[in-house]
Each structure stands twice: as C-alpha cells, then as structure tokens.
Amino acid sequence: MGNIFYNHADARVRAGWRIVLFLALFMLFSFIGQALIKYLNDGIPQTSTYIRNAILVMVAAIAATIAVPLARKFVDRRSVGSLGIKWSRHTASDIIFGFVLSGLMALSFFLLVRSLGLIEVSGYQWTTTSLDLSSWAKLSASTALMGFSTLLFLLGVDAVVAWWEELVFRGYLFRNMLDGLGAIFAIAISCVLYGVAHITNPDATWLSSGIIIVFGLFRIYGLWATNAIWLSFGAHLGWNFFQGPVFGFGASGNKSAALVQQEPSGADWLSGGAFGPEGSILILPILAVAFLAMRYWVRGRSGLMDAEQTTGEIKVTR
Hints:
With 318 residues, the protein is mainly alpha-helical.
C-alpha cells in the first residue's frame, strides 16, 4: 500500500499526492488570507469592484507564493528554481517580448472584429461619458492623470494575476504532472484543467473553455522552449492587460475600466460576446501566427528537455 503514496526510488511522495498536498496548502493559505482581511476590515471591501477583486487576487498570489516554495522543498524535495523561476539573461527580454506579442494579438483582434462590424465603438476614454477620439487632445491634465493612474493600477492587478497563475499552472502543477505522467498526458491534462478552471467565469461557454485550452498550450510552449515561466508570464500579462483595460473586451468574462468603450454587436462565437476574444473562433488564426512568432523568438534556446538531460531534475517517464 505504501508504494501507492511513496516512491522509494526518489525518496519522496508520488506526483499525484504531491499535487493534492500542494492544493491543500494553497487553499489553506488563501482561506487564512481572506479570513485575516475580513477580521481586520469587518469583511472584504464591497465599495469598489476593482478594489475587491484586487484584494482577492493579491490574497491568491500571496498564498501561491508561500505554498509553492514550501511544497517544492518539503514535499517535492526539489529546488524552487527548477520550476523555471530563476532570473537569467533572457528573463527581461522574454517578459517584454511576450507582453508586446500579446498586445499585437489584442490589436489584431480588435481591428478584425471592428472591420467585420462585430463590435460597436462608442468612444475612447476612462469614464462612461462618450468621448470622440478627436477630442482626446482636449482632456484636462487631471483627467489624463486619473486615466494614467487607473491604467497603472489595472496593469499591476494583471501582473499579480499572471504571476500566480503561471507559478501555479505552468510552474508547480505542470512540472509535477510531467514528472508523474509523461509529456503527452501532462500537457493534455494541464491544458484541460486550465480551460475548465475558467468555466465558472461570467458569460463562459464550452467554446470559450475550449479556446482557453488552446491558450494553455500556447503558454506551455513558452515554458517548454525556454525552461522558464517568464515568456509565458509576459504573454499572460500582456493579453489580460491589452484585451481588457486597453481595448475594452471582457478578459475571460471580467470587464474593467478601459480606454476603448465598445460593445459586441455580432454573434458571440464570432465577436466573443461579453466573455471577450477567448470566446471567439476568430482569435484562433491570430493565436496560430503568435505561436509562430514565439517559435521564432526561442529558436536555438535550451528548453525543458535539455534541462532534464543536464540536471536530471525533470523526469518525463512514468
């Protein structure tokens, strides 16, 4: 019976149970964080949706940042750096490239659906009052400052979201699945879990979850080719930021203040509806081009399989 739970050859708990223990730790720290905030503030603030969401995101990020190193060291018995979070000479450039690439993806989708009449743009601003683009130069300094500070706030929130999701999904969970199941099953299960995790988001559909599965594959490729989460982190951050706060789409069903005021006007499976680009089949060819661009960017790099051969820390056999 002990062999079901413990691998004597590796002298550690088997991969499936490592994941279970990590998830328990993650949920425990998340619960403690939310309980502490409720105790100190007599509940989680409800006055602003943005502030409330930012607090919950921060709690999740702190929980993940604590749970991952603890689980990696004491349960996995492996170094935290082997999850691909070490800083290297490629880190900054990978983050910037991923961020810009996702910005171009969001811009391409915006131009495409607008040219097809699938969205209606009413203005370009931060407030709810219509403001024509020609009036942009007439904005007061205080309004422009408010817009800039809001933009930075939302960028910060998106950075926190991208950090903890990449750390958990592409960092801890995928590496342990890879170790226990092998490459094919690890990639498939990780992507499916990533898609299913978004099915409870506002206005989610099975189509949107299916497309998010493809996004999961796109981000795993960034990890696979570089043996680090930073390229995927940059792409994740850029995608959430540009599709939501900049171009005004729903970010996996979550709306935010945006520079572009627009609403979908076509069929949801084409426009993305309230869920955003991930609910539209038109994002798939854009994603395919982005994949080729990422593949060109990482050419000649030592990826995850090269790291497995040189360090022996990553195993892809059952």
